[in-house]
Amino acid sequence: MAEAHRIVALPGDGIGPEIMAAARELLDRLGGFEVEEHLVGGASIDAHGTALTPEVLAACRASDAVLLAAVGGPKWDTTDPDAPRPEQGLLGLRKGLELFANLRPVRPSAALLDASPLRRERIEGTDLLVVRELTGGIYFGDSGRRDGAAFDTCSYEVGEIERIAEVAFRFARRRVTSVDKANVLETSRLWREVVERVAERHEGTELEHLLVDNAAMQLVARPAAFDVILTENLFGDILSDEAAMLTGSIGMLPSASVGAGGPGLFEPVHGSAPDIAGTGKANPLAMFGSVAMMLRYGIGREEEASAIESAVDRALEAGLRTPDLGGDATTEDATRAVLANL
Ligand code: IPM
Ligand code: MG
User: Fold this and answer.
1) Which ligand has the shortest distance to the CA of 256?
2) pTM here?
3) Which of 23, 154, 169, 245 would staple 138 via disulfide (CB 3.0–4.6 Å)?
4) Is 90 in the pocket of ligand 1 (CB under 6 A)?
């Protein structure tokens, strides 16, 4: 028998532990995994005073893939610039594992076409991928406070833009829509220049540029027209939450963060939902989708990845609806429904 894949599981905060428990049931069912659980985010702040310890980062580096549920919550909300924040755990992992490419596929399940706040005719046929740059831009630029003012710096190097653009073109089937704010920002003008150059190496794939405000509008006006959306860190953060609603709920969107070839990190796009933590009502489907992405992009078990996605679709077709989708299925109901369809 092949050696087991070593997975580091990071449940984190809020609903994190509940949906991670669901994911572990799924992994147990598939078999062939050795799972090691660690603290991250607020849970790690409570235990160690920091959102990500060097030991946990080292464990992640030594794994085949990292599965993360969610971090954050009101308990750790603070405006004190010196206090630790749960999100530092996630950002530290992204940077520490050099996960510069964040893939967020948006493909509404046929059964949920009426669950979106947008009309069915609008979203039918939507099958897009947000390729978000994840280790640069304003998230990691110089920031601070001085003389009663605060600043955050956005900067991008050519190489950073080039490598994420390459990822976008690799995933594109017909078109890359590069999103920027080139009418205002210098980083966006460099972004455009570099993306144009990368496009020349990918004949046969169309390139279009959209300003981010326009992109936000087009995303709800004609979502089915998009193929790959390529964008920088902050714009990608915002647009992917918006795109999530095309699937009916942010509880549906998985993501993969990959980089220079080391272990990837796989996590649902939604947060820790502290308002429903502990109630057993969290939707585990984005987490299951993230397990599928882990199998596909992290460890090359494509067949099982597709099997999970089909099982989720079938469970939804059979009527599975968690509260975020207007139903009353619990996390456990949803897990059982998906496993039964696997
Ligand atoms: C996301 C989240 C994170 C981000 C937060 C939790 C730091 O919103 O993954 O989209 O802004 O990247
Ligand atoms: Mg976000």
Assistant:
1) 1
2) 0.95
3) 154
4) yes
